[in-house]
Amino acid sequence: MKGYVFDFETAAVLPRNADLQGHMPLGITCAAGIKTDGKEPELWWAGMSQPSFFGANYADQMTNLEVMSMLHYLAMVHLEGYPAITWNGVGFEWLELGHETGLWQEVKVLALLHYDLMFQLLRQAGHFVGLDKAERGMGLPGKAIAGMTGYDAPVLWQKQPEDVLSYVSQDVTQPLQFIKATELAGFVCYAYSRAGDEEINHDLDRDKPNFGSVDLKEWLPVWKVFDLPEPDRRGYRNPPPTCYEVLRWVLELPPLTQSTPWALQPELKEQGLAVEDRLESLRVRLARIDEAKATNATVRRTR
Fold first, then answer.
1. Is the per-residue pLDDT at 286 higher than 70?
2. What's the pLDDT tens digit per position in 20-36?
3. Domain tally for the chain?
4. Does residue 262 come out as left (phi exceeding 0), alpha (psi in the -120 to 50 range) or beta?
5. Whole-number pLDDT of residue 201
6. Which residues have a Cβ under 8 Å from the Cβ of 129 and sit 6 or more positions away?
7. DSSP per position, the chain
8. pTM tops 0.90
9. Cis peptide bond N-terminal to 154, omega within 30
10. What is the pLDDT of residue 297?
């Protein structure tokens, strides 16, 4: 698999388990990316565009110009044969970049053409899988900076920005090991320890790790994930969103056409036009899911 693993940290200080999408735009403090055949991560941070004569210059959050520059770079490496690789990029990174830049059609195309590892696992397993649980299932070590999460990063950025840069660097180097391990094994094994983790009616030992797995022929770009069979979602107490629902923001945007204004490389637009036709069937499927949920909600209210 050839690509560019990408991640960033946000600026907004929010309670743990807050609805991140509901608070967007969150602001971006720093970001990292590394090619799958690269050696060291590339870094972006708030304030890096400002001249400084005494070490790195840090600001509260990246300016629009800094974010736009980063987006152009992601488009450039994509066209060089290194599409972005994320963990939940459809549900977070690309959505935030849309809010930050306003370039919704450009961000939509990059999102569809990139590899979202968690998105594919959602399609195959039928529920969300965290990167730490997937790494544990594959026998890989966790982060060296233990106990820190994306919710902690905004506060720490104000005090120790170098530590946050180290944290986001790990966020892109760790998936490299995971990708290699899964491609070698031909499957993805993931751990969970509580019955509530995936909201599945399994009889789990709460004190011991339990494991699930899915076969892996290859990692697929987001637009091709829907070629995989739909998962068996029976037995969920509270069914998680489907891939169609996670992709809702993309499907609700107007279709991309030749006349759509475009701010990135024209070659990228041509690639986007090539997959636009696939989206109509996904929109139909999403509408049916919404209709079924509305019907079920009405039935429950009338009981």
1. yes
2. 899 999 999 999 999 99
3. 1
4. beta
5. 40
6. 118, 121, 122, 188, 190, 198
7. ---EEEEEEE-----TT--TGGG----EEEEEEEETT-SS-EEEETTTTS--SSS----SS--HHHHHHHHHHHHHHHHTT--EEESSTTTTHHHHHHHHH--HHHHHHHHHHSEEHHHHHHHHHSS---HHHHHHHTT----SSTT--TTTHHHHHHH-HHHHHHHHHHHHHHHHHHHHHHHHHTEEEEEE-STTTTTB-----TTS-EEEEEE-S----HHHHTTSPPP--TTBSSPPPPHHHHTHHHHTSPPP-TTS---S-HHHHHHHHHHHTTHHHHHHHHHHHHHHHHHHHHHHHH-
8. yes
9. no
10. 77
CA distance 190 to 183: 15
Report residue 123 as tokens.
């399609």
Q: Which residue has the tokens 């030992």?
A: 205
What pLDDT does residue 150 have? 77
pLDDT at 39: 92
Spatial CA neighbour of 114 closest among 175, 165, 39, 61: 175
Joined together, the tokens standing for residue 194 give 């509580």
Quote the domain boundaries for residue 218. 4-302
- What percent of the chain is predicted at pLDDT more than 90? 76
Cα 42–Cα 66–Cα 111 angle in degrees, nearest 5: 70
